[in-house]
Amino acid sequence: MRPTLAVVGAGAKAVAVAAKAAELNHMGVDVPEVVAVERTGVAANWQAEGGWTDGQHRLGTSPEKDVGFPYRSSFPVLRAGAQAPGRNAELDDRMTRHSWQSYLIATGQFAEWIDRGRPAPTHRRWSQYLRWVATNCEMNVISGEVTRIAVDTEADAPRWALHTSEKAVLADGLMITGPGQPERSILPGNPRVLSIAQFWHRAARNELSAERVAVIGGGETAASMLNELFRHRVSTITVISPGVTLFTRGEGFFENMLFSDPTGWTALTLEERRDALARTDRGVFSARVQEALLSDDRIRHLRGRVAHAVARDSRIRLTLSTNQGGENLETAHGFDLVIDGSGADALWFVPLLGQDALDLLELGLGGPLTGESLQEFIGDDLALTDITPKLFLPGLSGLTQGPGFPNLSCLGLLSDRILGSDLVANRGLSERPSGRANASTPEIAHRAAG
Ligand SMILES: Cc1cc2nc3c(=O)[nH]c(=O)nc-3n(C[C@H](O)[C@H](O)[C@H](O)COP(=O)(O)OP(=O)(O)OC[C@H]3O[C@@H](n4cnc5c(N)ncnc54)[C@H](O)[C@@H]3O)c2cc1C
């Protein structure tokens, strides 16, 4: 029986891994059975239903950075196998069937896309592409929201048990994806403080109008919301982020290369890597968004971290703390509407971990589970080192493995690393004798308990 790799969320990463697993399976390579557990629908976070976007805003990275990018497979078994020459090239060739351009060709949109100058697709179109790939590779998706992650010790080796309200899915390896939940808010329940999901909901109903608006966060999520806010009746927009200013991503060849090709990343010191991430990734707006920001005089930037928020006199008072010359300075500011766009939280899954799962991880980490400790423990396969069963955390792997792994920059490489990992000791990956296809199991009912 093939080991199972469960993925929380059927988003871009799950689709990329499922597509590559399907192609490797056709090539006769034993790879894990990939099962995604999804609370809404495939690629939901790229549509309005996921709460992170209204679907109309445009992808920041190029769509050619699709599920197979950078089409430079280096799959361990194919690299080492008897018929090694050409096998990775064959895999790349097979993956082009799932490319952005193949999608456009299959859906009759290719010529128009070229003639329009290769525009960045809307988030919605990107989700349609991901759904097309998922359908083509017969991706196995189980509907349900994962509410608890535990460790199952009934079999010989421990496995992950993913609990939804209806069932438990058992798996030999687990990959966590996505930015977390868009319903977070610094002042839940207050109508003047909106979560990301509430913002998009109100924007769709044209219910965003206020004098002084604050947007907390300086990342891609906040950027999409700023792009939308311009169209509504607001007098001033203050972007609050800890950075000295709102930086622009350079998007030149050398920066892009860091994301597409992590070769050499591990040779940098941790300090150099943190510096590179700060310049290119965290709290940095794309050039396109910056261009729009510059031309609108309603927008201001305020440096600081929001320490707390209170409702007072029909306004929201935010207390910002700023480090100035080594001293912590607190300042208060009033707004009519606050949008909490602090966005993606790579540790969003931690509250789902049961005590047994927490104990297992803390034992492996040799101390308390923190963002820092998790990041530093991520190995070449994007999983925590020396922890069984395997826990793949691509969202936290930027620091040790390369800045492209948490996002869409090298989904093909990400799939190689994850599928090339040995999920079950003594049941390592191998090439099957030719001609014996491994039929993909459509449902994992035999492995689903409860
Ligand atoms: C508005 C916005 C724009 C972005 N633009 C870019 C861009 O242009 N380029 C780029 O590289 N990155 C971009 N990002 C970052 C982006 O999040 C990642 O690059 C990419 O989506 C990660 O893919 P993923 O598979 O990890 O997650 P996603 O594609 O977000 O998928 C996560 C899935 O998990 C599901 N889910 C969540 N919780 C649960 C649960 N408890 N149980 C079951 N299912 C669950 C969700 O419904 C969702 O379908 C953007 C992010 C946002 C929010």
Walk me through the structure:
The chain has about 450 residues and is of the alpha/beta class. It has 2 domains: about 5-180 and about 345-450, FAD/NAD(P)-binding domain, CATH 3.50.50.60; about 195-245 and about 285-340, FAD/NAD(P)-binding domain. The chain is built from 15 helices and 19 strands. It has helices at about 10-25, 75-80, 85-95, 100-105, 110-115, 125-135, 195-205, 220-230, 255-260, 270-280, 285-295, 355-365, 370-375, 400, 410-420; strands spanning about 5-10, 35-40, 140-145, 150, 160-165, 170, 175, 195, 210-215, 235-240, 245-250, 285, 300-305, 305-310, 315-325, 325-335, 335-340, 390, 450. The chain has a 5-stranded parallel beta sheet, covered by helices on one side. The chain is globular and about 70 Å long. The two termini are about 20 Å apart. Flavin-adenine dinucleotide binds near residues 9, 40 and 146.
**How many extended strands?**
19
Q: Looking at this structure, what is the CATH superfamily of the largest domain?
A: FAD/NAD(P)-binding domain
Question: What is the arithmetic mean of pLDDT?
Answer: 89
- Low-pLDDT runs of 5+ residues are 435-450
Shape: globular
Q: Please state the structural category.
A: alpha/beta
Strand content: 15-25%
Q: Count of DSSP helices?
A: 15
> Which CATH class of the largest domain is shown?
Alpha Beta
Task: Please name the CATH topology of the largest domain.
Answer: FAD/NAD(P)-binding domain
Pfam family, one: Lys_Orn_oxgnase
Family: Belongs to the lysine N(6)-hydroxylase/L-ornithine N(5)-oxygenase family.
Cofactor: FAD
Organism: Mycolicibacterium rhodesiae (strain NBB3) (Mycobacterium rhodesiae)
